[in-house]
User: What shape does this take?
Amino acid sequence: MSFPPAAILLSFVGPALVLILCFNALARRAGLRPRGLTWRIVPTLLAPGILIAPMRGLPLARWLAGVADHWSVPLLALLVSAVSNQLFGVELLRPRDRRAAWLFGAGAGLFLYPLALGLGPFDPFGWGWRFGPLFVGVAALATVLLWRRNRLGLVLVLAVAAWHLRVPESGNYWDCLEDPFYFLASLGAVGWWLARLCLPRRTVHCELPKQA
Amino acid sequence: MALHFAAGMRNGWRPSPAGVAEFAASRPALPPPAPATPVCLQEFIDPQLTAPSAHVSSVCELPGGRLGAAWYAGTREGARDVAVYFATRQPGLGGAWSAPRALVTRDTAAQETFRFVKKVGNPVLFAGANGNLCLLYVSVGFGGWSGSSLNAKQSFDGGKTWSASQRLGLSPFFNVSELVKNGPAPLADGGWVVPIYHETLGKFAELLWLHLRPSGVEAEKSRPFGGRNAFQPALVTLDARRALLLCRAAGSVRRVFQSATEDAGHHWTAAQPIELPNPDSGLDALRLQDGRLLLAFNDAAAGRETLRLAASGDEGRSWRRLATLAQERRAEFSYPFLLQTSDKLVHLTYTWKRRGIKHVVFNLAWLDARHGEETQ
Assistant: This one.
């Protein structure tokens, strides 16, 4: 076998975080109130157990890796924050940090994917192979975010560290910053806010009882 | 962050891998050789036609003048039993091909890359000056060929043993739509540039910049041009800075497309159609040791019934048809691959009726004897 260990590890960690969130959502939907150590340990152990389980000789997570090729650092940060909030009540990313992360995911994806897939002669993915405009742009954004005490700035610094440690299989910086699932989730989140902003608010008319 | 910038500034501002290293100095054009007897030999690499279907071959020179060839074969294109096969041939015109050996199956590819693989295909084999071999091939996890990813294997003992497959991450969108068909050109820094292509939203050529290390393959890619008209390129280097890409037609203009660089691949001209037709079919090109360019292509705007050679003596500005290699109504002769070995013989492999891989070997005297025989 020849593959980067960090990329393999993340292919288990990403889906495990999603599964833990799903288990909690299901439990809440079933009317259960997850509290206590058991509720923290059971999904935390169950999720990796499912993902490690072999199907025709390949762990389930590696089947998923055939589709979900890599997990970006901001998406992992959002998932870790959601899991830590649900299991331990600790909010690593506050609402404004999450808003910035969704906006970043939507913006970066709208710039990257159409062009990288061939809509035009320019390929922004080429910027991620080595030091260049992408690194300067993200560094500037991270600096502004850190100055404004937005924790997405810290996440972007972690993305740089991941690239230096050669975490993504590709060796391309874009793969630390963006992935298709993060992009789609970001589009959904941003679209939801826009819809809430743009759609007229429903007004409920109440008739007061007539006074005699 | 500061450390990151320090490292970046040390390595220099280079947003693209293209143009970092020049092409390895092309051999200077040699004077025409002394008159020799025209020689042309045609044979099947696997004369038994073991598999019902075979397609996409490549050939390279191994240490000691032997040849190595790779292709894929199975029940049909994309079937689960398709494997990448490898065979070797002793040097000289009288050599025979060894029995084919399966190098990659979907199961071994899945095992080695530790992920689901639905099918494999398009092997491209090449050898470095030190005799080390590299095999690039495509694998598909889900969907059709446009869902392909590229993988690399290396051999350090002339093809006896091979490293595990390494999947190359080249696309941000599920790492799909990266394919290969033609051979690479060496770079001055010891690396390689491989002409690859993309076919999702657009259909266009790409360049894969490779450095082969015993620990694995380092890969980056660049895009010479975009669009939907020209893809599946063949790369011909003219000197250290100049090169041509000759491409298969993808759009309504059924002609061979050509693009050029004068700065070692950093910038390329837009792909323009040349006078030769192309029926949306693979082609290959080569710079011969005498400086001429040789092109193998399907000589029609539709159908793959005629496989022909053309040559250019003015670096691709004009082409002259030289020889017909195969021609038969309603048959398919396609996906040629060209190589000139150190003994000056020219080798060509191609898909014969989708049933087998044919190997044609000829010398320049045979090529020159065909000069003028073909009609325009």
Summary: Strands of chain A lie at 54-55, 58-59.
